[in-house]
Amino acid sequence: MTDHLLRVEGLSAGYLGENVVHDVSLSVGKGEVVAVIGSNGAGKSTMFKAICGLQRATSGTVEFAHADLTAKKAHAIVRAGMVYVPAERHLFPHMSVRDNLALGAYPKRPRPEQIEFVFNTFPRLKERATQHAGTMSGGEQQMLAVGRALMSSPRLLMLDEPTTGLSPLLASEAYAALTDLRAEGLTILVAEQQVPLALGLADRGYVLDHGRIELTGTAQELADDPGVRKAYLGV
Amino acid sequence: MTASTASAKEGAPNTAARGSATAFRDFAPIAVVAVLLALVPLNFHDSRSMMTVIIAGMLFLSYTIAFNVIFGSTGQLFLCTGALAGIGGFGSVILSDRVGIPMTLSIVLAGAVAAVFGGLLSWIAVSRSLDTIFTGIVTLAFSLSFQNFVLGRRDLTGGENGLRVEAGKDGLLDTQVKPYYVFLALAVAYLILFRLLQRSHIGWAFRALRDDEVAAELSGVDVTRYRVYAGIIGSAMLGVAGAIFAHHRGFIGTSTYSFGSVDVRVLVMLAFGGIGTLIGPVLGAAVFTILDEILVSYAQLREVLYGVVTVGLFLGFRQGVIPALSSLWDRVVSSGGRGRKST
Amino acid sequence: MTAVVLDGIVLGLQFAILGAGLTLVYGLGGVVNLAHGQMAVFSAIVIARLIDHGVSTFLAVMIGIAAVGVLGLLIDLSLMKPVYRQKGESRVLLGLLLMLGVGFIIDGVLEWKYPIEALTIRISGDPIPILGVNMRRGSLIASGIIVVVGASLVLFFRFTTFGRATRSVIQDERGARLCGVNPATVRTVIFGLSGVLAGVVAVTRAMSTPVVSTAGVDLTIFALIVAVVGGLGSVSGSFFAGILLGIVNTFSAFYIGTYITTIVLLLAAALTIVLRPSGLLGEKP
Hints:
- The complex is a heterotrimer.
- In chain A, the strands form 2 sheets. In chain A, strands 6-7-8-3-9-10 form a 6-stranded mixed β-sheet, sandwiched between helices. Chain A has a 4-stranded antiparallel β-sheet with strand order 2-1-4-5, covered by helices on one side.
- Chain A is an alpha/beta fold.
- Chain A contains 10 helices and 10 strands.
- Chain A has a domain at 32-42 and 81-232: 3-Layer(aba) Sandwich (Rossmann fold).
- By secondary structure, chain B is an all-alpha fold.
- Helix content of chain B is 78%, strand content 1%.
- In chain B, helix 5 runs parallel beside helix 7 (132-152).
- Chain B is built from 16 helices and 2 strands.
- Chain C has one domain (2-116, 134-275): ABC transporter involved in vitamin B12 uptake, BtuC (Orthogonal Bundle), CATH 1.10.3470.
- Helix content of chain C is 76%, strand content 4%.
- Chain C has helices spanning 2-29, 36-52, 57-77, 80-85, 88-113, 137-159, 161-171, 173-178, 183-206, 216-230, 235-255, 258-275; strands at residues 118-119, 128-130, 133-135, 211-212.
- Chain C has a two-stranded antiparallel sheet with strand order 1-4.
- In chain C, a hairpin with a 2-residue loop joins strand 2 and strand 3.
- The longest helix of chain C has 28 residues, at 2-29.
- Chains in contact: A-C, B-C.
C-alpha cells in the first residue's frame, strides 16, 4: 500500500469549538474501494466534510495525489479530482438533469461521451434528462448526485451514505451501480451505516465510533470481527 | 440546544426575583444620564440655534430608544420609524387643529394610532414569519407610502408646503429651554420604560428570543405575541415623540419624518451606540448630534460623511460602542478577580 | 388605451433591467444592494461629464457603463468580503447596511460635486407609429436595447458554463462548491455585471427622460420593488414583474394620479412579500 491516493493524518474537526472527529488517520490507495462504517452520529459526515474542504479541520493534514490539500477550499479540492457526494445531495432543484450533469464538469464544458457514460451507468437519468432535479424521486436524485460527481472524471469519489432515504431495494440497486463503477477502476471512499452493503463493496474498511477510528482491516476481517458483527450486522 | 433551553428557563425566576438590590444597578445609569443631560442647557440656553440642535438631538434620542425596543430587543427591522413618528405628528396636529381636540389628548390619540399601525406591521411580519430583510422591505414600503401620502394629500398635510401647527403655540412647548426639559423628561421616561421592559417577564422573553428563537419557543414563550407587543409599544413611543415635536416646532413638512431624515439617522445612532443596550442610544444620539453641529457648515458633505461612518462602523465595529466598552470593562474587572456581564 | 399599455411596456422594460441587476446580486450572496440606483446615476453622470468634455456620445456611453461595472467589481472585492464571511440573517443585515452607506456616499458626492448635472441622450427623428400610436424614437431604441440585453442575459444564464455556474450558486451554494464552482468568483463577476446593468438603465432612461444626479434613491426603490415582486434571485421574474409594474404604473398614473401610483407599486411589493414571498413566478432562475 505505498501508492496512496488519499492520505489523512491526525484529522480533528467539529462544531462550535467542540471536536466531533478526533485524530483520525486513514488512507485510500489508487483503485481501492474503502468503506468507513459507523452508526448515525459517529462523525462520518463531519470527517468527510473536513476532508473535502466544506468544513475547516481543527488539526490534521490531507494529502491527495501527493499534493497537500489541507485547508484548501472545497471548489479547489474538487478541481484536484476529489469529488464528494453528500448525503443531502445538494442538487440544483430548478435545473434539468442535463444542466445538473453539465455543472459536474465545471469549469470545463461537458463532453458528450461523459454524459453518455453517466446515462449508461444510470439509464433512468437519460429518461429524465429534461426534468427538473427537484421533481425527481429520492432514488433518482441519488443517481443524479453520483452522476454529477462522475462528470468531472474524478480520481476519487467520496460518497456519504448513498443509501439515505432509499428503500432496501433501491439501496441494493445503488450499490450494484457502485460495483459497476468499481469494475471501471474508480477509486471510492464510502461512508455507510448499512454495513453489509458497504462491506460487500469495499476492499478495506474503517470502523468509526464516537469520532475515533476503533478498528481497521480488510472487508472480510471486519465482517468476521465479533464486535462489528454484534454492533452493526445484528448477529 | 438543551443547555440554552435550560438557561432560558432559569432566567425567568431570576429576573422576577431580582429585587431592589439590582434595581439600583439597573436604574442608576438612567439617573446619571438624566442629571448630565439636565445640565446641558446651562451652557447653551442663550443660543437659540444651539438649543434647536440640542432639542433635535433629544428627539432623536427618544426615536432611537423606541426603535431599540422594536429592533434591538426583538430583531424586527422596522424601516418606518420616521413614518410612525409622522403618523403621530400629522395625526396629532390634524386632531388638535382641525378636529379641535385638546393637544394633550390628541398627542395620546395620535400615539395610539401609530401603535395600531406598528402593531399591525409587526403582526403581519410575525404571522407570515418574515425574516429580517422582508420585514425591512415591507416596512420600507409602508414608510415610502406614508411619505407619498403626505405629499399627495395636500388638503390634510399641506403637501410640499408643509403644515403650520396652531396647538401648543403658546404653552409649555413654545420657547427653547422649557421644551428641552419636556423632551428630556420624555427620553428619560423612555429609558425607564426600556429598562422596565427588560426587567419584566416580557423583557426576559425578548432576550430569550434574541438569543435563540427555538429555545424561547420550547420554554413556552409565545414568540408571536411578544414581538407584536414590542411593535405596539415601540410604535406608540415613536408616535408620541413625533407628535410632541410637531407641537413644539410649530411647523411640519414632508422632510420632518422622511426616511432619509429619520430612519437613516436612527439606525446609525443605534448601531453606533450598541443595538439592544440601554445607554447605546444616548451615546449614539449625543455623538451624531455633535457631529451634525460640527458639519453644519459643510452641509453638502454631511451625506457623504454619514455614508463613510455607516460603512466604517459596520465594517470595523459591528457590535457598537457600549458593548465594546462593556466587554472591555468585563475583561478589566475579571482580571481583577470577579467577572460580571453588564450592559 | 393602447398608448398607455405601450408606454407601460417601455417603462416596464426599464424597471425590468433595474430589478434584474439587484436581484442577481441578492440571489447570489444575500446582499440587497441599496446603492443600485445610485450606481446607475453614477454612470449617468460619468457619461454626461464625458460628453461635456467633447467625447462622442457612443464612446462616453461605453466608458460610463464600463466604469460602473468596475465600481461593482471593486465594491464586491472590498466591502463585500466581510459580508460573505457572515451567515444567514447577519449577512443580509450587514450587506444591506453597508450598501446603504455606499449609497449615501455616491449620492452625497454626486449632489456635492454635480448638483445640477443630468444625462440626456437625444435621439432625433420623427415618432414611429406602432399599433396606431406614435412612439418616440428614443423610447423605441431604449426598449430595443433592453430587449437585446435581456435576451443576452437569458442566453448567458442558460447556455454558458459560467451562466450555469451562476444559477448553481443561487440554487445551492454548497452544491455549487461541490461541483468545483468558486462562489466568490461568481459573486464578484456578477456584481460587476449588475453594475453594467445599472449603466444600461442610466443610458436607456436618458433616451426619454433626463437622469438627474439626485435620482439614485428613487431608482433603488424601483429596483427593490421589481426584484421583490419578481422574486428575489429570479431574472425572468424581474422581467415579468418589471413589465407588469410598468403597465400598472402608467395605468394608475393616467387614471388615478401620481402619488397614488407610487403607493400602488409599494403596496404591490409589500403584498407580494406577505402573500408570495418567493415572488410572482415563485421559482428561481
